[in-house]
Amino acid sequence: MYYIYMLRCEDNSIYTGITNHLERRMQEHFLKTKECAKYTKRHTPVKIEKVWTCENRVLASKLEYRIKKLTKQEKEELIKQEKKFLILFQDSLECKNYKPFCLKNDTK
Description:
By secondary structure, this protein is α+β, with helices and mostly antiparallel strands. The chain is 41% helix and 24% strand. It has a single domain, classed as GIY-YIG endonuclease. A hairpin with a 4-residue loop joins strand 1 and strand 2. It is globular.
């Protein structure tokens, strides 16, 4: 299982990434370990905004790529409404393989 995630940073920017171990990857980003992304070393993450699951890395990588190509406004809309996800990606991805993922301790 792969996770595609969006993090909100202190400067209000949004970082998108993929992982096969969500808890470990979040610790790397939030604790700024040496394994965290170069981007999250400079832009401190403060909140997990959205997480999707996918059965394989190929589809997860395609989704990550497509999200990274969105404008900031489109990313904000994607975070706000799940329908936007289907509208944006139904043409090129097998969206049936993606499902929203909620963290138990996610406080908005």
